[in-house]
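tool_call predict_complex ligand=magnesium ion
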Amino acid sequence: MKVKLARISLREIRLPLREPFRISSGVTEHRRILLLALEDSEGAAAWSECVAGEKPNYSPETIDTAWLAIREWLAPRLLGREFEDPEQVFPLLDLDVRGHRMAKAALEMGIWALFAIRREISLARLLGGTHRSVPAGISLGIQSTPQALVERARSALQQGYRKIKLKIAPGADIQFVAAVREALGPEAPLMADANSAYALHDADHLAQLDRFGLMMIEQPLAWDDLVRHAALQQRLATPICLDESITSPQHAEDMITLGSGKIVNIKPGRVGGLGQAKAIHDICQRHRIPVWCGGMLESGIGRAYNVALASLPNFVIPGDLSPSARYWERDIVSPEWTMDSNGLVPVPWDKPGIGVEVDLDRVDNLTSRSETLAY
Ligand code: OSB
Ligand code: MG
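tool_result ok
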């Protein structure tokens, strides 16, 4: 079976978050989301999502650079081309186009979904998934006071979340984590995410977190650093987990070689798609490095790809895979993503493709710009 890509439509939608999400590098109140609708020559159709944000405060990409990259350099390589395997897509997109991995990922992931639809199997099965449900964690933004963070963390634990990630920054770190640990007790599965807010000279400061028994601290140092993270890991008992710094399988190998971290947060949208995400998963599995699936405040479309990826065997730590209602008044897919009281999100296993339907009327109403590319 071959998939020949006939048309790609880009859409920007604007979706307000239920509450502002603050990380060390900025705050998001509504998402501007780039969605792709891909169609093949047989009339099969699939939706995908680009995880790039509005500002380059997480990675150098933004929704606007992704739109440009897809239109100018990436989509023209795919349109009219026949693929026998979705693994062929990333090498073609990556040849002599540096970076732009979020833009590449949106296209690559959509082609995985087209293959799943054409083969009449779920994306999770096509990927080689094994878990039928995946445990979810919640990522809590920086709050104005430790007490406000405690309230949210307590509520998350009551809802069943299996991991509670506290965003931290200088001035909102030790006291905030201490308050949550104190209130929730020693067994609560807590971690912190700094989104690159610290430098190596903060090592003694960060070592104060060791007494809270965190599962890990995510990306304390620069977004593209590996060497200093290795030096920091030597000085911390808490395992370092890398997010921003791991943009390719090669970076995962380098992390392992250098000892820059002990855990990887894999986001398919950050690393160039599902093929690259699987490769990182496999490298980590061989080296006994546990992985989990991160999130980028995706709509229900992007979430579908994350859930399918998280069904692979070495995803052994709860992912940032909150249900739709955590983010949105109403999602753009049905059914919406849900989590049970044990913190488990069911993996769509038998429906062909990504496992959710896109509410087209709603997407139309939310669309602020669109463009169709064909060959
Ligand atoms: O660092 O993991 C991150 C959201 C936007 C940018 C970076 C990050 C995040 C999250 C959100 O933590 C996780 C989610 O989607 O629930
Ligand atoms: Mg992170």
